[in-house]
Each structure stands twice: as structure tokens, then as C-alpha cells.
Amino acid sequence: MTLHLSVVLFLPLAFGVLGLLAPPRMARWIALLGSALVLAYAVTLLTDFDSSAPGLQYVTDETWIGELGISYKLGIDGLNLVLLALTAILWFFCTLWATHREWDRPRLFYLHFMLAETAVLGALLAQDLALFVVFFDLMLVPFFFLTGQWGEGRRVQATMKLVIYTLVGSLLMLTAAIATGVLAAEGPAELSFAFSDLAQRPLAESSQNWIFLFFAAAFLVKMPAFPLHGWMPDGYRCMPLPVLAVFSGVLSKVAAYGFLKICLPLFPDASLNFQTLLLLIALASILYGSAMAFTTTETRLILGYSSVAQLGFITLGIFALNDQGAQGALLQAFNHGLVVAPAFFIVALLAARAGGSQDLRDMGGIGMRAPVLAAMFLIVAFATLAMPGSANFVAEFYILLGVFTEKVAIAIVASTGVVLAAVYGLRLYIGAVHNRTGPRVESREISLREGLVLVPLVLLILAIALYPQFALERSEQSVTAVISPPPAVAVATPAGWTPYAPLEETP
Amino acid sequence: MDVGWFLAASALIFTLGAAGVLTRRSPLVILLCVELMLNAANLSLIAFARMHGNHDGQIFALIVMVVAACEVTVGLGVIVAMQRRRLPIDVDEMQELRG
Amino acid sequence: MNSIRLFAWLTLLFPLAGCIAIALVGRRLPARGAGWLGTGALALSFASAIGALLALLDQAHDERQIVAVAWDYAHSAGIDAQLSLLVDPLSVFMILVVSGVSMLIHLYSISYIASDAGYVRFFAYLNFFVFSMLLLVLAGNFIVLIIGWAFVGAASYMLISFWYRRGTATRAGIKAFVINVLGDVGLVLGTLFIFKHVGTLDFLGTFEAARTEFAPGDADLTAGLILVLVGAFAKSAQIPLHTWLPDAMEGPTPVSALIHAATMVTAGVYLIARMHPLFELAPAAADVGAIIGCLTLLVAGTIAIAVTDLKRVIAYSTMSQIGYMIMAVSAGAYVAGMFHLMTHAFFKALLFMAAGSVIAAMAGQQNLDRMGGFRKTMPFTFGCMVIGGLALAGIPPFSGFFSKDEILLLIGDRGGWYWILYVAGYVGAFLTGIYTFRMIFRAFFGEPVPEARELEGGHLHHAEVPTNPATGEVEDTDVGFPGPEHHIAEREPTMKIAMGLLALLAIGGGVLQIPRVTHVIDHFLEPTFHDSALYERHPSDGLITFGLLLGAAVGLAGIAVAYLIWVRRPQIAVAARARLAPLHKLFVNKWYFDELIDTLVVRPARWFGAWAQQTFERVFVNGMLVGGTSGVVRAGSSAVRAAQTGFLRYYALLIVAGLVVLTFYFLMNA
Q1: Given an 8 Å threshold on Cβ–Cβ distance, is C165 in contact with A387?
Q2: What is the pLDDT of residues A269-320, one digit of tens each?
Q3: Looking at beta carbons, which residues of chain C come within 8 Å of A418?
Q4: Are C555 and C401 a contacting pair, CB within 8 Å?
Q5: Cα–Cα dist C20/C71, whole Å
Q6: What are phi and psi of C240, to 5 degrees?
Q7: What gap in Å lies between CA A193 and CA A182, rounded to an integer?
Q8: Touching check for C640 and chain B: CB below 8 Å?
Q9: What is the predicted pLDDT for the residue at C639?
Q10: Which of A37, A120, C53, C576 sits in a 20 to 30 Å window from A248, CA-based?
Q11: Residues of C in Cβ contact (< 8 Å) with A378
Q12: Contacts by A55-63 with C-beta closer than 8 Å and gap 24+?
């Protein structure tokens, strides 16, 4: 079966534009249809993917800007497959969620929402460094508008922070990407940004070091990791919740994916040099994020800081620099996305029952007349705190095992993050669902419409918890290839050919 | 004839035009000077086309002339419009770009 | 072989199916339907466990370790995590005890909490708990073990916080959960230490590889096993991770009977027994277990003498008895430990059930100071309490006598410094006699309290306004207290049946393993422990006789002291309390363990969180990083703004200047 990745890539944007032309009332349904089609496509890819075959599948490779060696190259391997599925799943359900509300200027809203999906899919599918950078930066554009236009509270300030932080990261990344391509093309090789070419042309260690740091800065901001998370509190406070769910669920994972896809295979020496630094940043993220999550009372920020901690775990796994760690990181990326989106949805449901307040102090006793909601919330909370039996636990086990074989002390300190997660996870659950009913709380069961969003997501959490092998077996081949890349093959140089040969006069 | 002479002439005309753009305050004269610069470039293009013996440069020059014609049309239109509305015809009076 | 696998899976799946069924349709069932559904699921599970037992007995002696794999759970990158069960005599023994006792406790709960608003929820949780516990004991590798381990913790949390409107209950719940997660983390880290060397998560594979991979006393193995012990201590409420267990008495009484006496807290004992091939390679770790078990049994015994909450007395006695078991399995007396685990499950569940009946008669009041004189009005409960108490105190011929005695016998037989443990064990037995009968005498003897008189008149006492006995807060009438009606054993047949059966087991359970007479458990468990160096021990006849006599004497002495102090001369208790004030204060305050943990762990964590929130985030992250970045951007933009004069000619000049510079640059380079 031939599956064209360009179709899945531009499907959301096409439907966004279509929605722009349709009457405003129809925009939401068109967007929903678009995201549903992407989801269908992603499911097809998941089942059709051959997990035993190494290398890229469904490759699309066209020259885009030939002179600069930039190609429009898309492909799927074990690394991006599960994240692609995650993106498709979350976008569908968050679009469904977004349809519950009347948005100001709906056509534009859904256009941006869909454009964001295309950008994320592009960054995941891109097999060319320049193409990756383009889509990575394109991700920022729709979120700039979605936060600035449809946000809540001090949205302008939040947007500015978000933009400044991520733009600085993006600029560093752009510089680093160009440097990678140019420096790699020294000698006989033609300029090329394709990952497959770059992997064959290792850079000198000194260049690797600074380029790696530039990339790392960009990815760490996007995650966000401690101490580069300054934009996160305001950003999380102000984004509309469905937007925040995909932002927190998917965008941070693109950064983690970037580490796996770009930093590890292209800059192996630098990755090794900075391993300890990155592990320590990850560790600080885990501890700091957890500590903040169990002190703040804003439910959005509890989830936000817990994401900082979870992304810390993912970084930890990646920079264990071994198979187990990377497998765990990838699985955790998928799980965290799958867990955080319903968690934000639940925050919205709780706020609706607590007189509109999203503060934990105004909640309490919401479980009273809502056993289904309480049960769903309990499952999500347990998955968030990586309770054994959830796929999150499997991922953390892999991550800890990976780190353990490298640095025992770091693994042991990191494991306290698991205990702290139990504290903030249960604190959120108990604070909202248990105890006496708050003064403005009106407990009621979820409606069918809300259930349509929440229940399938929770069922997915349960399904992956029962069979995490589903994700692990699909990524195993690619992860092994990333961690121990095949030896670089020297480019064969034709005899007697020098790069600066004088051009001959044409008669 | 050596291509150098053409280039020298072209450079002279370009410098004249550039100096005019930088020093004069009347938009009309500035427009004329821009035309001078464009024509200096055209001269170089045609000289090089002659040197290489192909038509690329000539085609380029033709396109430049078309663009220049458009530009003059728009520019003169603007100046006439300003005149009609009795606005001062002085480029230093237009400072809206200041940050 | 296959029938064993099938029975093992069925044992596991019935409670899960019961939980799901109750959760989905429980509300539509007639009154008490959910309870019967849950009990039925457990009965089927128990039947399957018996099926597994019979099928296992059909196997040849050396083929009694069977692994049942369902599917690859997380099998990649060199980690072989499968969903597998290990069916061997040890796990079959455990599933029999767990499913059997749980079934009786379900039966008891059908009436006991019949008027609670959360009836359906209660049975769904209870079935889920049993499923988790069965998963724990049937686990065939570390991952499944950890999953069962954590599920048990989660189920325990849900049941402790069952009356979730009570602040005391939710606080106790989160405390239990967090300490249990701490244990989980210990277990995970311990697993990592072991996996690093043996390269497999499968139990049988690990034990096989450990023999070649680890030298005796290997440092990594010792470290790993001590971490595993942290897991065992957290779950089995051993010092210093025991503080959650007394607080867990916030849960309904059947929960205390099921989780905090008969099953969950014994998980640590099971774990050490399961890991015995590893512990024998790392004797230092095993000694840590034995010493902590011994300390726990003494500390818990002293606290149990001082506390006045009926359920907490039994909770501390549980801690103390688990201390015996931990000490036993750590010191190599595996069968004795498992035997005591079984008899303890019988008599402790019975004690809790009887206590539940008394508490119901007191309308939720648990304070021993307010009780007294129930002997006449609640004869059945009294009888059960006495049977349980005699078994607990180790009076022949009750079951506890034989099991406790066998533990001390084998420890004494090891000689060396184990003699200290041996003596401490008898001191603990003396304390056991005292606190058990203190509780019985104070609740059932003496002047009848008003509640007892009311019952004498044929009416069960009900508080006009139900209050939380711990805080005096008025209860939420929707959820949050046992409901408007209470149920005592004398009036409810299902409670009576459950307690009666357990009483019979508590009396007669000891016949399975009488020194020199019967060896049923010994023989049955042999295939699991066949490779153990410490398994085949034969204490001398003299030691056996001495031990049996001493055990009986110490137990009786404890009861006699209790009788003297609390029945004959109540003034002694007052005088002793006055004279030994500091000691009494220490015991009443539970040796200040809560305060210690609070100071060492909870407060620093809170302080760090507050510091991060208020100082670090504001000053460093927002001030320096965010402020710094935006400051740089602002300064940069004002510099650029200055260049924007708005004069067209100025821009043109800049362009020309730029061109000139570029031209020069290229000319210089050419």
C-alpha cells in the first residue's frame, strides 16, 4: 500500500483553509472532519508500519531548494510514528473539545488550530534539517495568535514572553542548523541538509559542541526545562484550554523528539561530552517541577510544573545514551501527551463545577455526585504519577534503568521524583474531588458530550497500560539505530577530481 | 573596445545618481536620480551581455526599464497627488517611519 | 500443567471481573446485591485457588514451579518484561490464604456496611484490592510484582479514604499512599541493582543467574536487597515506615481486617520469602530485615499497651506480629514465617471483625476509655474476641501458639547473636498477652457503659448527630460515616458465619504444623525452598520442649498481668501511669516517629517547595531570566529605534554605506 505523507501533512491546513471559506457556523465541523481524517490516516500508518524493517518508510523525497541542498523529504521511522499517532489523537479530541465552546471569529481560530497541526506534523515527518527548522518555527506562529487573540487573563504579556523565549531558541537553532549543513559539506560533498546525508558526515568535535548547545537551548526552552521555563507559568495561565492541551501534550514532545532525531545521531561526541550537564538539568527539572507542583494551588500550573518534571524524566532517558533510556523516553513522550490532555480537560470540567475558578482552594468535594468523573480523574491521576501498571511506569522504569547503568547516583536521586509525583498527583485529586464541598462547588456528572472527549482518551490510557509493547516494538529498531549509529561510510571521491578545478572555456 | 570603459561610465553615472538621491530634497529630482542609477546598471548589464555574447543581460535590462517605467508612473502620480492636496513637496517633511 | 495455569489466571480474573461488574452495574442491583456479587466473585476465586492447589499436587515434586505467560508486556532493549505468573507452592499457599480470608471478610461486609451510602463503591474497591493482592503474590517477574505491589497500595489508599468527606480519612489516605510509593521506589531501585547483574526480570531466571553472577556478600546485591527491604518495610509497616498503618484505621473496619491485618501488610513477608535465594547470598541484608523486624515487634508492643483506640491497639499488634514474620523469613525460618502469616490472617481478621461489632454497638466510638461491660450483651462477639485474643497471645492449643513458637524455635536454633532476637521475641510475646487482654478486659468487663445498657434493653445505640470520633466534627450524612444503621454480629447472620468460620480456623489452624507431629506446610512449601541452605533445620527435642513451655508460660503471664492490672486492681494502672510518666508519654506518642518523619522529611520538602515558589521562581526565574531576557530585548530595540530617524535620505545613505562596505570586503578577499 502506498501512503503519501504529504497528504497527511497538509490535510489539516487544507481543512483549515476550507473552513475559512465556509460559513462561520460550519468552521468547527470542517476542522473536526480534517482532524478525524488525519487520525484515520495515522491509524492506518500505525497498523501498516513494518516494525521489523530498519530505516525510513513511506519516504517522499523531492528537491526543494536545490542550490542550498534543501530537500522536501518526509518519512516515518520508529521515532516519529508514535508521536505522529499522539499528535493525530490529541488534535482530534482537542478539536472535538474546542467545538464545545463558541469562539470569537471561529473561522480564524480553527484555521490557526489546523495550521498548528500541520506544523507539528511537518516537524515530526521532516527528514531534512532545514525542513525541520521551518516547521519547528512555523509551530510558533499559530500559537502566537491562539494565545494572543483567544487567550485569557494577561494574554499579551504571556504571548510576548512565549515569543521572546522561543524565538531566541529558534534563532539559535537556525544558526546551528545552517552551520551543521555548511560545515558538514566541506570537502567534496555537496551542500545537503538531509538527515541521512548529515549522519554520514560527522563534524569536528569542537563544532559539534557549540552546535549541540544551540540546539539544546532551543529544545530545552520548548520543553520547557528548568531553568528555561520562565515563559511557562504565564503561558499556561493564559492559553485557552484546548490549545493548552495540545501545546503541552505535543509541542514539548517535538523538542524531545528533536534531541533524539538530531542531537544524538548528528552530534554523538558532543552528546557524550554534555551528557552529565543534560542529566543534571533533567534532574533539576524533575525536582524543581515536582516541588512547584505540590506548592502551587492553580490547577493549570500543577499540570504545567508536573510537565516540567515529566519532561525532565524524558530528557533523563534520552541522555542516558542507551537503548533502554531512549525507549523509555519515547514511550514516556507518548504517555505524557496522552495523559496531560485529558488532565487539562478535567481541569476545565472541575472549573465548570467550581464556579469558574481554576484554583484548587475553591474546589473540593466535586466527586460527590460525579462518580464517573471521579473515576476517570483517578485513572488519569494515577497515570500522571506513573503508578506501576500504567504505561508511564513502564517508561519510567526503562528510563531509570537506562540512567542507572550509566550514573547510579542520578538514577537514585531521580527516583525521588516518583515519590514527589505521588504527592502532587494525589494532592490535586484529593483537593478537587474529596473532602468537604467547597462553598461555590456544584457537583454534577459529566454530560454525554464531555464523555465523548474524556472516555476515549481514558480508554486509550488503559489500553496502552495493558500493552505498552505496542509502542515499544514499533520504536525499537529506530532507537537502536539512533543510539549506536552505523559507521559513517566515507564518500567515494572520483579519481583525479578536485573541488576547485578551473572551468574550461567553451568554444 | 574594452568593457572597462563601459563600467567606468556606468559607475560615474551611478555615483551621480546616488549622490543626487542622498542630497536633494525634492522628490522629483530624487526620482530622476533613481532613474540615473537604474540606467547606469542597465549600461553595465548590456556591456557584460556584449562581452559574453549572449542575450541574458539585454533581457534583464529590458525588464529593468519596464520596472523603471512603472516606478516613474507611480512616483509621479504620488507627487501630483501631493501637489493637489497642497502638501509640502519635501522628503524631509515625511518622517512617519521614525521609530 | 495447563490446568494449573488456567486456574491461576482464573483466580486472578474473578476479582477483577467482579470489580468491573460491580462498578458498571452495581447501582442497578437490588439492596446488598453488590455485596453478594463481590462475595460470589471471591468464592469463585477461592474455588479456582483450590483447583490450582489440587492440580499442583498432581505434579511431581520437582515440577511444581510453573510459569504462565500471557503476553509480552514491555519486552525490548534487553528488558524482558512479560505478563507472567509464577505458580509454585508458595504462591498457591498465598492465594489460598488471600482469597479465602478475603471471601469471609466480603461476607462480613455485606451486612456490616449495609447502610453506607458508598456500598457499591466499597465492594468495587474491595474486589480490586483482592485482585491486586493476588497479582502481587502470583507475579512471575519483578515488573508484575511491582505492579501488584503498587495496585495494593492504591487500593489501600482508596479504601482508607473511603469516607472521603472526613479530612482525617483523606490525610491518612495520602500518607499511606506516599509511604507506599516510597516503598515502590525502593523496590524498583532494588530491582535495578539486581537486574544490572543478572540481566533478566524473571524470578526463576534471576535466582538461577544470581548463583553465578553474585559472590556471597556482593555489595551491589546487598544494596539492592536493602532497597527491596525498604519496599517490604513500607508495605508491612515496619520501622520507620510504619506510621501510616495506625492512621489507616480511618477506613471502615472490614478494610482494617482485610488489608491492614490479613493480606496487604503481609506482602513484605511474602516478598522476602520469595526472594530467599538472593537473601541467602547477601546475609547482611537478611540480618537488617531480622533486626528491623525484631525492633518493630518490641516498639509496636509497647505502643499497643498505651493507646486507647480499640482499632489502633489491634493495628499495633498487627505491626508487632508482622515484625515476627519479617524476623522469621529474614532469619531463614521461611515456613514458620508463612505459617504464622496464615494463622495471623485468621485470628487478626477475627479480632478486627469482633472489634467492628463492638464499634458498631458504640455507634462508631472507638475509644477504649468509653467502653466496658459488653460481655453479657454481646456474647458471640465476646467469644470471638477471646478466641482471637488467645490465639494472638499464643496460648495452647490455639493456632498462634504453634506458629509463633516455631518462629522463635528456629531463630533460637540458629544460635550466635540470634539469641538476642530469640529473647526479644519472648519479651514481645509477654507484651502481646498484656495488650491483647487489656483491650478485651476494658471493652467487655467492668461496669456496662450506657451503650451496653441500651443494647441490653434490645436497642442498638445511635448517635443523634453522627460525629467523627477523631475530631468531633459533625459527619457529612451523604458520604463520610458508616451510615445511619449499625450492624452487630449478634444480629447479622452473614457476620456471624464469617466470624464463626474464622474462629474455627483460629482455634484449629495450628494442627497443620505441630512440632514433631505434623508437617503439612513444611512438605507443601518444600519445592519453593528446595535450594535453600537454611531450610532443612531440625532443632533438638530439648529446645522444642523448652520453647513450647516457655511460650505458653509467657503468654499466660501476660494475660495474668493484664487481669491483675485492669480487672482486679484498676488503681495499679493509674499508679503505674503516674510513676512511669515519661515512658507512658513516649508510648502514647508512638515513640515520636510521626514527629521525626515530619521534621526530617515533610517539613524540608514543604520548605523547599515554598522557597522555590516564593523566592526562587520570583527572583531568579522571573527576575533574572525573564526580566533579563526582556531587558536585553528592550535595550536592543531602543538602540535600533534610535537609528530610525524617519528621514528617507538617511535610510538610503545607510544602504549605500552597507553596499560600499560589502564591496570593499569582497575586493579585499578577492
Answers
A1: no
A2: 888 888 889 999 999 899 888 888 888 888 888 999 999 999 999 999 999 8
A3: 181, 184-185, 188
A4: yes
A5: 22
A6: -100, 20
A7: 9
A8: yes
A9: 75
A10: A37
A11: 158
A12: A55/A481, A56/A127, A56/A196, A58/A2, A58/A3, A58/A4, A58/A5, A59/A127, A60/A4, A60/A5, A60/A6, A61/A127, A61/A194
For residue B33, give the C-alpha cell.
Answer: 536620480
For an interface test with C, give the residue of A171, A281, A390, A401 to mutate (most C CBs within 10 A): A401
Instruction: Note the ipTM here.
Output: 0.87
pLDDT tens profile A185-233: 776 667 888 888 888 888 888 888 889 999 999 999 888 888 788 788 8
**Separation in Å, CA of B60 to nearest CA in chain C:** 21
Q: Please report all neighbours of B, defined by 3+ CB atom pairs within 8 A.
A: C
Cα A353 off chain centre by: 30
pLDDT on residue B95? 65
Contacts of B95 in chain C (CB under 8 A): 645-647
Q: How far apart are CA A380 and CA A366, in angstroms?
A: 16
Task: Please write the tens of the pLDDT for every residue from C185-224.
Answer: 999 999 998 988 888 888 888 888 888 888 887 888 898 8
- SS3 of C446, please? coil
Query: CA A403 to CA A409: how far, in whole Å?
Result: 9
Residue C79 β-bridge partners? C76
**Cβ–Cβ below 8 Å for A430 and C182:** no
**Dihedral over Cα of A398, A404, A406, A407: its sign:** positive
Query: Rounded to 5 degrees, what are φ and ψ at C309?
Result: -90, 125
**Rounded (10°) angle between helices C167-198 and A408-433:** 160
Of the candidates A230, A294, A389, the beta carbon closest to that of C621 is on: A230
Task: Say whether C474 sits in a helix, a strand or coil.
Answer: strand
- Vertex C511 angle, CA C505 and C515, to 5°: 145
Alpha carbons C492 and C254: distance in angstroms, whole number: 15
Does the pLDDT value for residue A493 go beyond 50? Answer: no
Query: For chain C, which residues score pLDDT lower than 50?
Result: none
Residue with cell 535600533: C640
Cell numbers at A332, concatenated: 514516556
Q: How far is CA A40 from CA A8, A13, A60, in A?
A: 10, 16, 20
Interchain contact, C645 vs B98, CB within 8 Å: yes
CB atoms within 10 A of CB C666: 9
Most C CBs within 10 Å, among A334, A415, A484, to test the C interface: A415
Q: Which residues contact A100 (CB under 8 A, 6 or more apart)?
A: A449, A450, A453
* Residue B88 at interface with chain C, using a CB cutoff of 8 Å: no
Q: Which residues pair with C66 in a beta bridge?
A: C87
Residues of C within 8 A of A412 (CB-CB) are 189
